[in-house]
Queue: 3 jobs
Job 1
Amino acid sequence: MPQDGYELEWSGEEMRAVVDRVMRRVAEHIDTLPQQPASNSEEGARVARELAEKLPENGQPLDDVLNTVFDEAAPISYNTAGPGYLAYIPGGGVPASAVASLIADAVNRYVGVWLAAPGFVQLEVNVVRWFCEIIGYPASAGGILTTGGSLANFTAVVTARRERMPENFLRGTVYTSDQTHHSVVKAAMLAGLPERNVRAVPSNDRYQVRLEDMAQRMQRDRAEGLEPFMVVGNAGTTNTGAVDDLEGLADLAVQEGVWLHIDAAYGGFFMLTERGRRVLRGIERADSVTLDPHKGLFLPYGNGSLLLRDPQALRRAHSTFSDYMPPMQDDWDLVDFCQLSPELSRGFRGLRAWLPIKLHGIAAFRRSLDEKLDLTEWAAGELRAIPGMQILAEPQLSLVVFRLAPPDRGEDELNDLNRRLLEGINRRKNVYLTATTLEDRFALRICVLSFRTHRDRMEQCIADIRHAVAEVTAAQ
Ligand SMILES: Cc1ncc(COP(=O)(O)O)c(C=O)c1O
């Protein structure tokens, strides 16, 4: 036992002993992921109340603490790291990234300013450059790693506002589609723009923004004395996986002289695949792009990124100076992250992407993303073969939206039928699906984006859907 006053200072040997014991639990958890229920939160309120606790004055044995984590808290959850998680936008959490977190947190160097850890900062800069390369940006592009897509969208709005409407921005308007992720409206609000200045332009029957409507709306707004300054396009919506006409949006942005931001939080990493590059053509023309490694690169939660054609815009929007700070670098190659984002002290999140990419090579991620595209296409084909099944949004990437629509039923009846269908599928706990509403139609979604999802689980998913269809139709 370490002596009093030094308990927090584990030696290397002590830490190894703890990590070995922790690893036993982690390994067991990882190996049983496929057998764990796809969702299990019905008892959430009870368990949460039981887990409420007082500030402990004294320490507890490691095993007791691990039991709380692995036996009591972890099982009451969606199995977001498992192969059956086909809900919302999955990710998965590649284990190599967890290893990187251990290293980053144990080493605990300061990466907010270049001078404090130039080597680590460079590794993170490498990651940003790789991401820029993936989306087809030139070598002069740059950006930052964020905690996720919401913070990346927020930083994009703040940067665009600063570049285009420096001081008086209350007449500035932002153009999104009716399918854009709600984090963009939130970003605009946080950036101080009136919520009424954010336009949700209607989308077409493939849920892609209608460019003519957007152009007309800008003209109307200008005529009323407002100042359009930013367009947000979608490269994979959360709702249906739709990808806007990115070339068309880029042309419109040039014509109107506005900042073009693409929210590619979900879809962006499909640029690694040939099919993805076809669908996402034009993304490289955007002024900024949100790309979420905790989605399309399968990293654990807490990993997002914002990339910019002109990274100096980030610096112009975020840099400040204080006497107590170390000197900042003038050479653009030597990056002070605190000059590019709202954060000063921050974790070394770059290692969480750097280590998996170095260990596996980007080809492993490309193969897995290609597999997700194949699985989604296959699932859509299987769904079409189920009598009465209607595909409401064909896959553009790895997301398909569908509903059961037997003839001669009213819309309310169909909505009710599909609610029960979703319950019937999820009750089996092999997969977990979520729903959305498209033009008042309750619809089910399958989003394939976990690196652990393979053909066997998709076959199980289709089998469960068929069983649930038989149940709900028999119950009529
Ligand atoms: C298209 C899109 N944009 C933004 C976000 C927000 O990202 P985050 O949850 O990482 O903040 C999401 C989340 O699912 C998303 O799908």
Job 2
Amino acid sequence: MIHCTLLSPAIDVSYIVSEPLIDQTLTDLPICVTPAGKGLNVASVVRELGEDVTLHAIIPEIDLLRYTRFLEEKEIRHKILPVPGSVRVNTTVLNVATSAVTHLNSAGAAVSVRFQDEFIEKIHQCCNTGSYWCFSGSIPEGFDNDVYGRMIKTCNDAGAHTLLDSRGAPLRLGLRMRPEMVKPNHAELEQIFDESILGVHHIALKAKRLIDMGISNAFISLGGDGMIAIQNNDCLLCVPPSVTIVDTVGCGDALVAGIIVARKREFSFHETCRMAVACGVSKALHRGPGIVFRDEVWQLMEDVNITAV
Ligand SMILES: Nc1ncnc2c1ncn2[C@@H]1O[C@H](COP(=O)(O)OP(=O)(O)OP(=O)(O)O)[C@@H](O)[C@H]1O
Ligand SMILES: [Mg+2]
């Protein structure tokens, strides 16, 4: 079974307007409201790729119904720890006349640290040998920066497979517990080493450092440039086909889903990379996070160019 975690859920609200927003009230706008969060994006793509998935989530009580309905529609199993407070709201306003996009992201409510311990205990109860665990996204205010590290240790001790995709201190502290896989983007790789990293060979060198730290696989995603991935002595540059991009938010989450599904299906390292990059590209072709199409992924896999670095 594949498991995803969602510690910092959000609601995405998007508006489409056709005039500038200066000193005016616009009414009767079409609105799209969807539950969001990186762990949820990963779980949605895993499901689309045809695998069973369980989402372990911390959700404010007041937003529970919206999340559970959404998860049921997507056939994502869920284990939810309800907490007080309300969810953060990310609002996007797209002006179709100018193509300007404005993002208004609210702060998330703090969550008491006692829920962190309860959540880790629930994971301890569920993780068994051979299961796959994906830890993605930021953490709520009030939680310790080593929360992912503690969850990774719990899963590693149980003989489960672990993947970490976060940023800043939770990423750095999580790495100390040696997840089996890590998926930083370029900026996150620079945060890990606290230095600027330029060019394919420099990126590959730093990815190798992650392997030396005891992490078995490092997947460094590079947006439109694809990915550099390393496992043992195999270091691959994976370049996506050139396509017309619609929306790149959540491409990394789709790539993570591709990695975890390929690993569960025991694909070779090459094929895992191919599938991961194809999932990222499929996401970039559609509006909305967590949206890929499985037939498109199979087709795009053929067009990913892989070379040894
Ligand atoms: N402009 C693009 N053209 C083609 N493929 C893209 C593009 N942007 C992203 N991708 C695909 O998605 C993958 C992941 O993208 P990226 O490195 O931007 O992830 P990320 O920064 O972690 O994104 P997020 O955190 O928003 O999910 C890339 O490796 C690539 O396969
Ligand atoms: Mg990312």
Job 3
Amino acid sequence: MNRRLVHMTVRPTPARGTLLWRGLTRACAVCGQRGLTRRWVTLREDCPRCGFHFERKPGHFVGAVGISTNITFGLLLITLVAGIGIMWPDLSPAPLLLAMLPIAVLVPILFHPTAKTLWVAIDLGMKPLEAGEAVGGAEERSAK
Ligand SMILES: [Zn+2]
């Protein structure tokens, strides 16, 4: 009896430290490829080298929004506490608002792609690669 076996290879998931470093430095968590954004804020849908699709399921990037929100509010809190400490005891809201407004507006925009790659890395740490994920992008296919 002839049976045809179909083998689907599963690419090994990198170690958690590697995943986090790649996520923090806006690299592909799977292969380390850089240059994943267009115009700084738009993350490509797939890694050009390994073909990993960054949005693993619909709504995947809600975690990235959570990371971005926590970073932004953390920086706002640090700015508020430092501002109060510097101005104490003559508190005035205007300088605090002037210092906090750019943080509230710019950090979520500029940190957005990093939050996404970091979330992809965290998600991969919790849920390793499965068969059919990261099976090779255009760069890997052209190298063969
Ligand atoms: Zn990749």
